[in-house]
Specification:
- The chain is α/β, with parallel strands linked by helices.
- It has nine helices and 14 strands.
- The protein has a seven-stranded parallel β-sheet, with helices on both faces. The chain has a seven-stranded mixed β-sheet with strand order 9-10-8-11-14-13-12.
- α4 links the parallel β6 and β7.
- α1 packs across α9 and α5 runs parallel beside α7.
Length: 343
């Protein structure tokens, strides 16, 4: 007897994240893709945008044409603000769960959303039905919610190594330095509108100093998990590679806490997390092993002549930082093995 398929619609199908999401979903054994939606190129096949996707799928259509009665999950990969409007219409009238890859439901406080995104939240009444869901930290909690808010790529790479250590109070909570580097796909297809500097595809660019929008969710999750104020400096950098993210984090262990203790705690916490790989102490780390995967690799390194240690965290910003984590969350919603559909 064949198992019932999960009927899927994807909004924002032709962006970088949307295309990676569709590529993953197209090979997922429990998924049936019913609609691929975008605002332009209506009627085009998905292969017009991404030849990596081999399976024959529905052509690009308008959201207005979706029969929501047959959809189980809507994946939203839309610009900031648009998921709120769509969710308001759907949640009220249909028995559908939304997995949102934008920032629309990441912040539980509508005032914080306005502060960081400079626009009023369109559906604050739905915030109580949403769950910020970095998969490794939510597990079965996720199933009670109608809207699953997937974290941003920077916060994913930062929280996976830091939150286990902060929860165990192994680190000083002042003076944490986070330097993160992302491939330019993280800025989306409108990259040239967001970053107008010359040589954009061959230069390194620091941006969002002290006020990057992702600091809002980092602050929120640090406070939620530690019940205390964590003082840190976060600097994002755009680098001339399409995909991949590396966060270099400098922390000071508390008292007599050793680098071995830090390393063991990370191994213990992530022991059952299939997609997290804790490397041996002082192991060099880049993005080469995580590209085009849902993996996160973490290395803990000793710094010469300093009490601080360096933690390296590498992910693919489009997969573990977005589309792969969204599918991982879907698997949890349906009590499936987290690994299904994710190589």
């Amino acid at each position: 007897m064949s198992l019932k398929k999960i009927n899927i619609a994807v909004a924002g199908a032709t962006g970088y994240v949307g295309l990676d999401l569709i590529k993953i979903l197209s090979t997922h054994p429990r998924v049936s893709i019913k609609y691929l939606c975008a605002q332009k190129k209506i009627g085009k096949s998905i292969q017009f945008f991404d030849k990596r996707i081999k399976k024959k799928l529905p052509k690009i259509s308008n959201l207005k044409n979706v029969n929501w009665n047959i959809i189980d999950i809507l994946f939203c990969s839309l610009p900031t603000g648009q998921s709120q409007i769509l969710a308001k219409k759907i949640i009220k009238n249909y028995n559908i769960k939304i997995i949102d890859l934008s920032a629309d439901f990441r912040l539980s406080n509508k005032k914080d959303f306005f502060k960081f995104y400079k626009t009023k939240h369109s559906a604050p009444e739905l915030l109580k039905f949403s769950k910020y869901s970095l998969t490794e930290f939510v597990k079965k909690d996720i199933q009670k919610y109608k809207i699953i808010a997937c974290p941003g790529c920077y916060p994913t790479s930062i929280q996976l190594p830091l939150i286990p250590l902060l929860k165990k109070k192994l680190l000083n909570t002042k003076g944490i330095i986070i330097d993160s580097k992302s491939g330019y796909s993280g800025a989306g297809k409108n990259l040239k509108k967001k970053f107008t500097h010359k040589n954009i595809f061959s230069a390194i660019k620091t941006y969002g100093i002290s006020n990057h929008r992702h600091t809002a969710e980092i602050d929120q999750e640090f406070k939620k998990n530690t019940k205390s104020k964590i003082l840190y400096n976060f600097t994002p950098n755009l680098i001339p590679t399409f995909r991949g993210m590396l966060s270099t984090i400098y922390v000071e262990p508390k008292g007599n806490v050793t680098i071995r203790k830090i390393h063991n705690e990370l191994r213990k916490f992530h022991k059952k997390n299939h997609f997290i790989n804790i490397l041996p102490i002082n192991k060099n780390l880049g993005t080469e092993n995580v590209l085009n995967t849902n993996l996160c690799e973490i290395s803990v390194c000793k710094l010469k002549g300093s009490k601080k240690i360096m933690i390296l965290s590498a992910i693919d910003n489009l997969i573990k930082g977005a589309s792969g984590q969204a599918v991982q969350n879907m698997n949890l919603l349906y009590n499936l093995n987290e690994k299904i559909g994710l190589k």
